[in-house]
Amino acid sequence: MNVRTWISRRSLALLMAGGIGALAVFPSAAAENYPSRSITMIVPFAAGGPTDTVARVLAQALGKNLGQTIIIENLGGAGGTLAAARAAKAAPDGYTIFVNHLGQATAPALYKKLPYDPIGDFAPIGLATDATMVMVARTDVPAATLGELIDYVKKNKDTISMGHAGIGAASHLCEMLFMSAIDTELTLVAYRGTAPAMTDLLGGQIQLICDQATSAISNIKAGKVKAYTVTTPTRIASLPDVPTSVEGGLSELQVSVWHGLYAPKGTPKPVIDRLVTALQASLEDAALKARFADLATEPVSKDRATPEALAALLRAETDKWGPIIKKAGVYGE
């Protein structure tokens, strides 16, 4: 081997080593500078709905704490699974994040073939908020308490109908759980959202809805509907006179429309850590707390705004809802 060949090979080896080193350093350097541009938050439902509203309030506070604009991208369809698939396949660099409610946990039971793994294809960031469901009825329903409502429903099951926002929606899940808890089958009527279902309830076409308090609170406070119970363990500040399902003797009716924040699997840990810190700071923001209160929801505590807490809840909710959905024999398209 001549000297020139030896030098060339030596130089190539050094360049390759330097290149590999540069590649190894790059992700760390990128994470340290994160975020250096705007971030897209994918929302799996149309603008104006409860999840979109929560996402926009959260995005504003997050953007302030991250020092960058967060752009909302609404991608509805297929019960939120189209957006979830898009988010799962996004570049794992922290510039695409995803917000979803308990639909992230129910999708495996509702859809036989998902183009993504709701658990394995995402890096949890943390929980953001819990929104309760509330059971409401027309004002002409004679029952005054949840116990009386159950008796009324059982005696009139062939003429009682409940509206919901479609297969797998939170309202549908709540109503399936209600029927399971009282061991009574009722007629369920699917709508394109709880807003048209509420319109029909007010118009006398249906008797009951299990709706997000976020959506139902204005009609409750206006006295246009009767509220029987909230489906969380404690009463909520915005509806202090509405008892919990536990107080009403129906402890099985526990439904929390939690919202979690995710990144694609493989997002660097320093980026996740930065997002967690920003999320926790955002949930302490006075403007966010006030806006969430208006929406009959509230930010979670700091210890729940973590990847570990969201991952644990996602697994628990997946285990909880899977058997209920399969027993009911309902499937999304």
Q: Which CATH architecture of the largest domain would you pick?
A: 3-Layer(aba) Sandwich
Share in helix: 40-55%
Number of discrete helical segments = 11
Low-confidence parts: 3-8, 10-18, 20-26
Summarize the main sheet. Answer: 10 strands, mixed
| Estimated share of beta-strand residues | 15-25%
> What structural class do helix, strand and pairing data support?
alpha/beta
- Determine Rg (CA atoms, Å): 24 Å
| CATH domain topology of the largest domain | D-Maltodextrin-Binding Protein, domain 2
Tell me the domain tally: 2
CATH class of the largest domain: Alpha Beta
Distance between the termini: 68 Å
- According to DSSP, the number of beta strands is 10
N-to-C order of helices and strands: HEHEHEHEHEHEHEHEEHHEH
Mean pLDDT: 88
The CATH superfamily title of the largest domain: Bordetella uptake gene, domain 1
Q: What coarse outline follows from CA principal-axis ratios? A: globular
Quaternary state of the chains: single chain
Report on this structure.
The chain is of the alpha/beta class and 333 residues long. It folds into two domains: 172 residues, 3-Layer(aba) Sandwich (D-Maltodextrin-Binding Protein, domain 2), CATH 3.40.190.150; 99 residues, D-Maltodextrin-Binding Protein, domain 2. Helices cover 45% and strands 18% of the residues. It is built from eleven helices and ten strands. Strands 1, 2, 3, 4, 5, 6, 7, 8, 9 and 10 form a ten-stranded mixed beta sheet that branches. Helix 2 runs antiparallel to helix 10, helix 4 packs parallel to helix 11 and helix 6 crosses helix 11. The radius of gyration is 24 Å and the shape is globular. 43% of the residues are buried.
